[in-house]
Design brief:
By secondary structure, the chain is mostly beta strands. It has 8 helices and 41 strands. The strands form 9 sheets. Strands 29, 32, 33, 34, 35, 36 and 39 form a 7-stranded mixed beta sheet that branches. 53% of the residues are buried.
Length: 793
C-alpha cells in the first residue's frame, strides 16, 4: 500500500513517558472469531490526534501476553503508510473460526492471536521485537510511542490496565483520543468499532472495492493493493471485486488456475503486480493475453506447515474483456538484479509481517515479484532435471561455481541467491533431460511462483533451448597393489524385487567407476522383499543379486557381512529395513569374524594377547542407545590387509526430514534433526576414542551417509578431540560435494580417518547426483590407503 503523497509527514519522538500528542492506540480487540463474536478477526486501531499526517513507515504494532513468562516474546506486525490528522489506521490480526462479519479493508495485516481478555499492545518506532516485560522497563524504552495494557496485563501505563475486554467487547479511547498515560482512565469497554484510513467500517463497503459500477468496469482494488508490502496480503480473507489484469500464464494440470498481471504498476518496488487465480477443480477457460476482471476471495495458501505462502484469489468469477493483448514486460533475473543477501531473519520466528526489502534480500526480491513475469537468458543448469519436470539454473554464473558446473553450498549463511527452479507450463512438449553444467540457451520467461519443494520457481511459458555440455561420469583410478581401497555408496533403497537395470547400473558404479574397491560400505540395502511389511529382515537375496551384477560388470566375487535390524526399528521406508553392509574382496582383504553380534547387542573394543579386537565383528555401536531410535545403527567390522589390521565403521545417520526449509517463513530455519545426528556423532566419536585408547595407532575408517555437511555440528561432534579427520576437507573447495539438492551441490556422504592413517588418496566419484538419469541420488567416494606407509603418531 502507498502513502498519501499529499500529506506532509512528521514523526514525533518515540517515547511514552509523556502523553502522545499525535499517534496513539485508539482501540484494541482480541475477541475476533471467538464464541459470541460478530467480527471474525482481532484488530488494533490507531488514531492521529495531531494536526499533520503521521508517517508509520518502519513502525510496528507489538503484542505481549498479559502475564508474560520467561519464554514469552513480543510479536510484531510491521506498519506502512501514514495516518491523516483526525483519522484512524486499522491493523488486522488473528482470525478465528467464529463471527460473521469481516473487518473493513485493513491498512496493515498481521496474524497475532491476541487474547480477548488480557494483553499488552505497543506502538513502536521500529520493527525489532521489544524485550521489556515489566511496566518500568517498558517505560524506559524510548522506541515505544504508545502502550495499552488491558485486562490483568502486567505491562501497562498508569494506575492499571484497561478493563472490560472480552469476546464481545473492545477497549477504546474517547473520540478525542485523549492520552493521559493511564490505561485505566483512558480506555473503557465498548462494542468493537474498527475504522480504517478510508473511514470504512464493517458493512460500509465490501472491503474489496465493490463500488456498484458496471460489470465491465474495474473495481477500486488493484493487484498491488492485494499483494501489499509484506509477504501477507492486507486483503486476506476478504472478497475483492473486478480486479483488472492481463492473463500471463495458465496452469491446466496440478494446482489449476492462471496468473494475471496489472499492466499499470504502482511505483512501490515492494508490491507485486501479479497474482495467481486458483480455479479449484475447474480447468481455466482463459487464455494468455486475455484482459480480465476477477472477483473472488483473497487467501494465503501454504504449501506446507513451514513454507511461505502464495497469495491467491480463490472461487473466482472472471469476465474476459478482450483477447490477444500484449503482455506486461518481464523483469530480468540476473547477477545485477538479484541481491547477494539471501533472506531476513526473525530470531526463528515468522518473517511474514516484515516489510519487504527487495534491494537487500534475494528472497524479498522474488517475493516482490510473486506471480509476475520474469525472464533470464543463457543460464547454467545447477540441478539436473527430475521425474517431475523440474530443473535448477543459476542466474549468477560466478556464484560459488563447482568444478563441473554446479553451485557449491558451503555455509548456512549463504544458500546461493542465484539459484532458481524452472518448470514448464507447456504440457504438450517433453521436458528436457538436463545435467548439471548444461545450459538453457536463449530466453526463458514465465510467471514467478512459490512451492514447498525449492521455493521460488519460474513457470515457463517460454523455455530456453537445452545445450548439452557433455558432462561425463567419473572413473576413479585402480588402487595399487599396496593400497587398500575403501569406498562408501548409498544405493537408494535397493532390494531383491528391483529391476535388473537398477542392479546393473549400481553394480557398474562399483566395478567400473569405483574400479572394484577392496571394501565397499553400502547404505540403504533393503531386506529381500523391500517395502513389503511382513517381518522379513534378511537381505541375502538382495546381496546375491547385487554381487552377481558386480561380477557380471567385471568386478570381483565379493563376500558380505551385515547385521539384520529388528523389524521396522531402523527408519527408512516402512517394511524396507534398510541397513549398512560390508562388501569385501577376499582375494585382497580378509574379514575377521567375531561371532555373536546382533541387532541389539553392542560391540566394544578389548585388548587381547593378540592385540586390539572387537568383541563382535560385525557388530553395532551401542544399538539400544536413544541416539539410534528409529535410525540406522553403525556397523563395525575388523579387516586385515597385507598383515595390517583396519577397523571400518559404516554409518547412515538420521535424515534431515522435519527440518524447516531454507526458503521458508521461519528464519533462521530450525534444524530439528540436527540434535539426534549430533548425539549419533557423539556415540561414534566415543567408540573411536575407545579404540584409540586401546591402540593409539589403530587404523580406523569411519564412512557413510552422515546426512550433514562438512561445516555442520554433526561433523564437528564426530571429529571432536581430533580423533577423526574428514577427508572431504582435503579436496579443493570447488570439489567438495556428494549430493545435489535444490541446485546446491553439497556434502552429505563422508569418509573420515584416524590419525594413524597418514598416507592416502581420496576421491569423490561423480556418477549420479549431477545427472538427470541417476542410479542413485548420491555419489560414491573412495579412499586408497597405503597401509605400510601409515605412520605412528
Amino acid at each position: 500500500m502507498g502513502a498519501a503523497g499529499a500529506f506532509a509527514f512528521t514523526a514525533l519522538p518515540a517515547a511514552h513517558a509523556t502523553p502522545s500528542a499525535a499517534a496513539v492506540i485508539a482501540e484494541v480487540y482480541g475477541g475476533g472469531g471467538n464464541s459470541g463474536a460478530t467480527l471474525t478477526r482481532d484488530f488494533v486501531e490507531l488514531g492521529n490526534a495531531g494536526s499533520t499526517a503521521y508517517d508509520l513507515s518502519g513502525y510496528s504494532v507489538q503484542y505481549l501476553p498479559g502475564t508474560p513468562s520467561s519464554g514469552s516474546t513480543w510479536q510484531v506486525t510491521a506498519l506502512t503508510g501514514s495516518v491523516a490528522p483526525g483519522a484512524r489506521y486499522l491493523v488486522g490480526e488473528g482470525t478465528g473460526s467464529g463471527g460473521t462479519t469481516a473487518l473493513p479493508t485493513t491498512d496493515a495485516s498481521g496474524s497475532i492471536a491476541m487474547s480477548a481478555t488480557t494483553g499488552t499492545i505497543a506502538l513502536v518506532s521500529g520493527t525489532t521485537a521489544l524485550t521489556c516485560k515489566t511496566a518500568a522497563d517498558c517505560a524506559a524504552d524510548t522506541r515505544i510511542v504508545d502502550l495499552t495494557g488491558y485486562g490483568t496485563a502486567v505491562v501497562r501505563e498508569g494506575s492499571g490496565p484497561a478493563t472490560g475486554a472480552s469476546n464481545t467487547a473492545a477497549v477504546a479511547r474517547a473520540d478525542s483520543l485523549a492520552d493521559t498515560d493511564d490505561n485505566a482512565a483512558d480506555f473503557t469497554a465498548a462494542t468493537p468499532s474498527p475504522v480504517n484510513s478510508a473511514g470504512q467500517t464493517p458493512g460500509s463497503g465490501d472491503g474489496g472495492g465493490g463500488d456498484g459500477g458496471s460489470p465491465t468496469d474495474p473495481g477500486t482494488v488493484r493487484v498491488h493493493d492485494i499483494q501489499g508490502t509484506t509477504r501477507l496480503s492486507p486483503y486476506s480473507g476478504q472478497t475483492v471485486t473486478r480486479v483488472p489484469g492481463i492473463v500471463t500464464g495458465v496452469r491446466s494440470s496440478g494446482s489449476l488456475g492462471y496468473w494475471i498481471q496489472d499492466p499499470t504498476p504502482d511505483t512501490d518496488p515492494r508490491t507485486s503486480e501479479a497474482v495467481f487465480v486458483y480455479t479449484g477443480s475447474t480447468k481455466p477457460t482463459v487464455a494468455v493475453g486475455d484482459s480480465v476482471l476477477v472477483t473472488g476471495k483473497v487467501s494465503e495458501y501454504y504449501p506446507s506447515s513451514t513454507s511461505q505462502s502464495n497469495t491467491e484469489i480463490t472461487g473466482p468469477t472472471t469476465t474476459v474483456l478482450s483477447s490477444g493483448n500484449a503482455l506486461p514486460a518481464a523483469v530480468t533475473l540476473d547477477a545485477t538484479s538479484v541481491p547477494d543477501a539471501y533472506i531476513p531473519t526473525a530470531s526463528g520466528g515468522s518473517i511474514e509481517s516484515l516489510p519487504l526489502q527487495p534491494t537487500v534480500y534475494a528472497q524479498d526480491f522474488y517475493e516482490s515479484l510473486e506471480g509476475m513475469r520474469v525472464t533470464f537468458a543463457d543460464a547454467r543448469v545447477v540441478g539436473a532435471s527430475d521425474a517431475y519436470g523440474e530443473l535448477w539454473v543459476t542466474v549468477k554464473p560466478d556464484e560459488n561455481a563447482t568444478a563441473r558446473g554446479g553451485t557449491l553450498y558451503s555455509s548456512y549463511d549463504q544458500p546461493n541467491t542465484g539459484r532458481i527452479e524452472v518448470m514448464s507450463l507447456d504440457t504438450t512438449s517433453t521436458f528436457p533431460a538436463a545435467n548439471v553444467g548444461d545450459e538453457l540457451s536463449g530466453v526463458t520467461t514465465g510467471p514467478l511462483d512459490y512451492s514447498t519443494y525449492g521455493g521460488y520457481n519460474v513457470q515457463a511459458t517460454q523455455l530456453g533451448t537445452l545445450v548439452d555440455n557433455g558432462l561425463k561420469q567419473e572413473v576413479t583410478r585402480k588402487q595399487k597393489k599396496d593400497e587398500l581401497a575403501v569406498a562408501t555408496y548409498n544405493v537408494e533403497n535397493l532390494d531383491a524385487l528391483d529391476t535388473q537395470e537398477k542392479f546393473d547400473r549400481l553394480a557398474e558404479g562399483v566395478a567400473v567407476n569405483l574400479n572394484s574397491p577392496d571394501i565397499v560400505a553400502l547404505e540403504e540395502i533393503q531386506d529381500d522383499n523391500g517395502a513389503t511389511n511382513d517381518g522379513t529382515v534378511t537381505a541375502e537375496g538382495t546381496l546375491k543379486r547385487f554381487t552377481d551384477a558386480v561380477r557380471a560388470a567385471g568386478g570381483p566375487v565379493y563376500k558380505w557381512r551385515y547385521i539384520s535390524p529388528t523389524n521396522d526399528a531402523d527408519g527408512g521406508e516402512p517394511g524396507g529395513n534398510i541397513r549398512q553392509v560390508f562388501l569385501f574382496n577376499p582375494k585382497r582383504v580378509s574379514f575377521t569374524d567375531h561371532k555373536g553380534g546382533d541387532a541389539t547387542t553392542a560391540t566394544s573394543v578389548v585388548k587381547t594377547r593378540h592385540g586390539v579386537e572387537l568383541t563382535y565383528s560385525p557388530g553395532r555401536i551401542d544399538p539400544t542407545n536413544a541416539a539410534w531410535e528409529d535410525s540406522r545403527k553403525p556397523l563395525v567390522g575388523e579387516f586385515t590387509f597385507q598383515g595390517e589390521q583396519v577397523f571400518v565403521v559404516a554409518n547412515h545417520f538420521i535424515s534431515k526430514g522435519g527440518d524447516q526449509p531454507i526458503h521458508g517463513r521461519y528464519q533462521p530455519p530450525a534444524r530439528s534433526s540436527e540434535t539426534q545426528r549430533a548425539a549419533q556423532a557423539a556415540e561414534v566419536n566415543t567408540f573411536v576414542k575407545s579404540l584409540l585408547a586401546a591402540d593409539r595407532n589403530a587404523k580406523a575408517i569411519v564412512l557413510g551417509d552422515l546426512n550433514d555437511y562438512e561445516f555442520s555440528q554433526t561433523v564437528t561432534t564426530l571429529t571432536a578431540d581430533k580423533v577423526l579427520k574428514p577427508l572431504i576437507t582435503t579436496l579443493p573447495a570447488a570439489e567438495r560435494y556428494t549430493y545435489v539438492y535444490d541446485g546446491n551441490s553439497q556434502t552429505l556422504d563422508h569418509i573420515l580417518t584416524s590419525p594413524a592413517v597418514t598416507s592416502f588418496n581420496y576421491d569423490v566419484v561423480h556418477i549420479n547426483a549431477e545427472f538427470a538419469d541417476q542410479a542413485s541420488d548420491h555419489d560414491p567416494q573412495i579412499v586408497r590407503i597405503d597401509v605400510s606407509k601409515c605412520g605412528r603418531h
